Fold:
Amino acid sequence: MVLTEEVNIVKGYIPVLRSQGKTLPEAWEKSVLMLWEHGVEVKTEYDKPGEPLSKDCTMIMEVSEPFTEPRIHLAFPGGIEDLEKYRQEVVSGVHDHWIKPEEGKWTYTYHARMSNYKVVNDLSSSEIESPFPPVDQLEYIVEKLSKSYYSRRAQAVIWMPTADPATDDCPCLQRVWCRIIKNESEQPVLNMNTHWRSRDAYKAAFMNIYAFTELQRELAQRIGERLGDDVKVGRYVDITDSYHIYGAYFEEFSERFLKNVQTRSFEERTWRTDDPRVQAALEYGKQLLNQERAREQEENK
Amino acid sequence: MDLSELSEAVIKGDSNLVTKLTTQAIEEKMDLNEIINNGLIAGMNVIGERFKNNEIFIPEVMISAHAMHAGMELLKPLFKASGIEPIGTVVIATVKGDVHDIGKNLVAMMFESAGFKVIDLGIDVDTLKIISAVKTHNPNILALSTLLTTTLDNMKNIVESLKTEGLRDQVLIMVGGAAVNETYADELGVDGYAKDASLAVDKAKELLGI
Structure:
């Protein structure tokens, strides 16, 4: 299957691939197929002895209509309820309280970095104080674009150069950038770009783009409320420096993913979010989060 | 009622239809074992086989498992009166320091679908809670999961604590998760390792001689 017009592979160069699609599953599926076909073979720090080299590229993925159905590709490692849990983790910060490196838990969440960015030089404990007040970068984006919708400065950074390089698990996402452009009807349209340092294309990227387009929708809604106008969700662009498929997954990737692409229609390997089964599973995800909250409250008593 | 309709509803992952058909089967006083084996589990067996053959994806397994679960919930209160017993008991947990639950949930679903009673202790579970669950529930299998290399030592602590408590020989231990492999499982001295959810139940049955 040839997905790009021509990819010039030069030894020593990381291929730069571009995937375009109307919907999330279309753009994501094309991106992994292009990576599989044209990616360069590289070693990673996580390879176990005997595993094949990973496939890698720099990927630019463009989704022109992120909320057109179908929104769900079935090749992600979880249930639909996990998509809902991850959506709430990114958009609402339901797992920000898991930032507890002193207990061996997380050093950051994307939501906490975006909405409560605190500069520290040590991430070994969540109790370490920042010399600066925290920054709500999402509020900044909303405020900036509400006042100057055409601004080029509406962005949230994730990376913390004072502390992240020293940690075992540093953030893949680096930056979220937003800008509004008016369409032919003079309606404001929120365009969003996300920039990623590194990403597991096969097992992580789909859940990421699902959740970050939900964040795009949330920001559009908040800006719209400030402007007293209906802000449309525009195109979503996702740029990854190292977009990869680990050698450890090659067997599963070829035997499951490629097999399904070859034997089932696009409609069969994707689901609409308005499918009653999907709606029920998304609702179940909400229930699971409520149960998790209740259990944690009980344990903390 | 034709129980193939029920298994088809499980295959489609249609929880509402499974609830409706299971209720109907109960009202028609069908044999509970038949409802389970020829309806709910028959449907899940098809899904399990398709997954093992790489024909479908994980969300499709999960949605069918939820549908089967919806039917099982209606049947559970009737089990005792009918003398139906699970084929085994599994205590499952993601170890302390790790809050990942997707893989663990999938394995739990697979066990339940195969007729095991599953006690899911959740994520970030400390050793004492796991030891306590082994004492309380006397499971056939203790299934431990971790995605992180940083929490691998906690698996080791659990195995050591079971030995200290004199419980090691009472339970079969299985491990899994992205941080674990066959070599590490051997080093830990556990009874089984499964590289993915579809193989976990097969391994458990093999260990139990079922």
